Amino acid sequence: MSVRTVVLDFDGTLIDSNLLKYNAYFTIMPDMAPELIENVLGTMFEASRYEIITEILRHSSKKDNGQAREILQGEVNELAREYNNIVLNGTFTCPEIPGALDMLNLLHTKNIPAYVSSTTPEVFLRQIVDSRGWNHFFAGVFGFPATKEETLASIMKDQGVEPEDVLVVGDGESDRKSAEALNARFIPVKNGRFPVEEVTRLITA
Predict the structure, then answer these.
(1) Nearest-angstrom CA–CA distance, 179 and 188
(2) Closest CA to 57 of 31, 27, 22
(3) 90 Cβ partners below 8 Å, 6+ apart?
(4) Are 8 and 117 a contacting pair, CB within 8 Å?
């Protein structure tokens, strides 16, 4: 049975922006120990920027007694604004993942609904998609605060499709886990290239 709906991660799946996003945390927090930021990113890079910034601040603010000071939401929001500015400007122009644009064109030609599901804040995600002239490729663009599982469940309900009719494509564990949770199909993005042949085979079976 052919796939009837495709749900795509964004960063690292459609655009080559993972390194840009990774490095931005070091830029907005230059006084933090790089090892601390690396450790946090090593365990939760796919989390939202708000969660990551909060975790970095929490780890950096330990008192002698081992208790962390209160992390103020305003502090997190200000750092997130700086991060958003860096990433937003970079993602307007960073290159596509090889093969991604070919796949978007193929899905559009075949009238197969394609969606974006990302941990990037939805308001910024929509700006990026719009700036790249990609709005016509997608039936919907979804990001934080919705989780990928929530987004996938909503898409399946709106499309009226069964789990086996849906394909999730992404480069992260969150993509695989969301597909697994809803019993959808999953194909990973590996080695910085979109899996064009694998996806084409499923949408034309």
Answers:
(1) 11
(2) 31
(3) 17, 20, 24
(4) yes
Q: Could you read off the pLDDT of 114-146 as tens digits, one per residue?
A: 999 999 999 999 999 999 999 999 999 999 999
* φ, ψ of residue 95 in degrees (nearest 5): -70, 155
Residue range 153-174, pLDDT digits in tens? 999 999 999 999 999 999 999 9
Residue of 94, 172, 170, 79 lying closest to 128 (CA atoms)? 94
pLDDT of residue 62: 60
Enumerate the β-bridge partners of residue 167: 6, 185
Residue 135 phi, psi dihedral angles, 5° rounding: -55, -35
Q: Residue 60: its pLDDT value, please?
A: 84
Whole-prediction pTM value? 0.90
> Hey, what amino acid is at 109?
T
- The whole-angstrom distance between residue 4's C-alpha and the CA centroid of its chain comes to 22
194, 16 Cβ separation under 8 angstroms: no
Helix, coil or strand: residue 124: helix
For residues 185 and 175, give the distance between their C-alpha atoms in angstroms, rounded to a whole number: 11
**Which amino acid is it at 105?**
N
Among all chains, which residue has been given the structure tokens 């694998």? 198
| 181: amino acid identity, one letter | A
Q: What is the fold of 5-16+95-203? A: Rossmann fold (3.40.50)
Q: Which residues of the chain have pLDDT under 50?
A: 63-65
